Amino acid sequence: MDYRPRQLLKGFTASKGRLVTDDASPGSPAPLEPVGAGSPATPSAEPLLVLTKATKRFGAVHALDDGSVTLFPGEAHALVGENGAGKSTLVKILAGVHQRDSGELLVRGTAMQFNGPAASRAAGISIIYQEPTLFPDLTVAENIFMGRQPLGRRRAIDRRAMNREAAAVFSRLGVALDPDRQARGLSVADQQIVEIAKALSLDANVLVMDEPTAALTSVEVERLFEVMRTLRAQGAAVLFISHRLEEVFASCQRVTIMRDGRLVQTALVTEVTVDDIIRSMVGRDLASLFPKTETAPGDIVLDVENLNREGVFCDISLTVRRGEIVALAGLVGAGRSEVARAIFGIDKRSSGTVRVNGEELPNGAPLAAMAAGVALVPEDRRQQGLVMELGIDSNMALASLGRLRRFGLIRRSSERDLALSWAEQLQLKFGRIRNPVSTLSGGNQQKVVLGKWLARRPSLLIIDEPTRGIDVGTKAEVHRILDNLVAEGMAILMISSELPEVLGMADRVLVLHEGRLTAELTRAEADEDTVMRAATGQLTGAAA
Amino acid sequence: MTTEVTAPAPPSDRFARAGALLRVRELGIGIVILVAFAITTLKNHHFANASSVQQLLSGAALIALLGVGETLVIITRNVDLSVGSVVGLSAYIVGTTFKHHPGTPVLAGFVLGILIGAVVGAVNGLITTVTRVPSLVVTLAMLYIIRGIDGVIVNAHTIDPEFIPKAFVSVGYKTFLGLPWLVIIVAAVVAVVGYAMRSFRSSRDLYAIGSNPEAAELAGIPTGRRVFTAFLVSGTLAGLAGSLFLALHAQIDVTGGVGYELTVVSAVVVGGVAIFGGSGTVLGAALGALLLNTINQSLVATKISPFWNQAIAGSLLLVAIAFDRWLSLRVARSLLTAEGAHRDV
Lengths: 544, 345
What we know:
By secondary structure, chain A is of the alpha/beta class. Chain A is built from 18 helices and 22 strands.
């Protein structure tokens, strides 16, 4: 089977091979100047939705102290804040999942009190959650129309009509998904598409998207923005939550910033800078999001030659030296994670060699790779990186159990010591070291995964999406940790879908397109345009 | 935007189609039943006649009826282990009523059984949805509680056939178009509930709840009410099964319905209902019950020690679950490679 890009990439045309960040450039103004956009001061337009001073407490925890946001018809409104700032609580209040303790909610001027998600939906509010909320056993069409399936005779569900309507929504979106297939097995991006189709079919006039782009690459994000534009053109308001500030500037007219459960400010995006936003979010100046010290690369640690895995990637040759970060860039589905898995030995390679510090690694043997000093921090920390119910200490010690063993038994105290020492080095924010990792924020969970592997003192760290779904403050900390590691002589192979991260942190950038290396760029050569062109296969002749 | 479809690669496409066919579980079970029947007939020529087919069907009817209710519950990612004891309770109370109040109308006997089952089902549903205690524990406790009550009220007495009205008992053996009324009643329940499970929004909610409980909440599905209803239906059908049990056996003692719950769960799982909820049909569950009974009868007819029966039923269960697991893994994997995606759901 030859390698094919995922169908989502089909909507991407050569002429649109641009970054999401330049969407707001003068050459391509937002296609629709929203009515009353951006200015709460414009009294002419009546707001679709006004939430004022909403509060929510869970026991002693004040999740939300002042949740306030106003949405006008036709506007895309960003909601930003660090994890724990109360964004999700605010979303869940709008969704009817949580009931606010106090505060006021007006939808088209009418005071509302939602007693459940159904009431919110009936009021024309549609939510796309960060984690897709599909029913894997049901068909795609049924997922879209759950609870409001078209009915035929005797109030029985008319499956044909349902599939037809689903297909109609998909063609509006320009995607080709079979409405009658099971949702099980859909890629994350396709799941997101189904969620969007659901929102579209509801004809919602308020669409709330909670970090919809966390799992998407630039091209898919671009498609999402098109959907947002379509909805806005129909007079809907979009509340857009994202950790990627460049997306906020690219697609939104106004931004509301929250911190510690409170509204900090709402502003036009044209009136604020990234630095302003970050300062409001964290309440202090951030040193830099991408602290990068110049290092002189040393000996070759990882040497990959002609690596092949049939149907997934082919002919991959690369090296990573001591003291350098090599980024593996590309679109989702380009085979980046697969290359990492093959190097580490989770997947078998069809041909090619992998050498670590000169020693050839056997094929398909993760234990041998670990013994040779390789560590792999996977992209999905919840599924692949952590045992969520286990304590911080047990998770940190998980990859080092061999060393902690005495007479075949693991001592809790040695787990604890190891975990405490790494928690301190990584500035982990936690309650008690025995608390389950599920109680930590996403950023701190990522630090635990990092700590787990760093405790083995690897010479090569492969890290897949180091900062996905992590708030800005912690993101900078993770970057600083990576920078310190290479300064101490570690070799890092980093996979990232966030271009600023790739450009900000990498000494060299390798770009994959459809399973092939299409470019190798030095830090000086790499810019957004070149990387994107290589990632979409429009850069030729520059193969590594 | 283009709307071109990424054609899945041929091999996985072929597999997906085969998978779709294999997933029509009802067909597979039907074939296995026919094969078992054919092999038995080869060994024992007396096996293939109308009366043994009747026996196969009536023998499976009660388990199939219980299986219908159990399917609804299991689809919501719950389980109802109390059904066996409900059969005993309902049969005994109906029998006692006939004994102490001769002249009780036949129909009243059925209504009474159904009501008893409905009450137990409602209690199961309430405790499960209100306290959020796992239904495994709730219904296991209910199983013992009712068995205890059974023991107290039955108190080693047996309701003998002479107390049961002839018309009531005739439901167990009288036939219509060659089928015992018992079988017709159960088939009707399977058909009605089967249609409802396919066609009504509220019953699709049950699948959604079992498929992804959190998403079901977010989608605004009244999960508590739906799960309650599933338990109510399961209890109600178990109550009806109690009345039918009495009609079929014409007597009832303290052992009535003992161990049914596990047979029912086996039949449902063999019939293709996923034990963790979200998928399966009542027709599959009914066929699962028929398959277990067919094997049971085949062993008798071929003079193989009936002790093998349980071992075979157990093996079937393992095969069914392993097969499901293997199939879903294969399908998921082939879909993944076909799309070149690198994430699992």
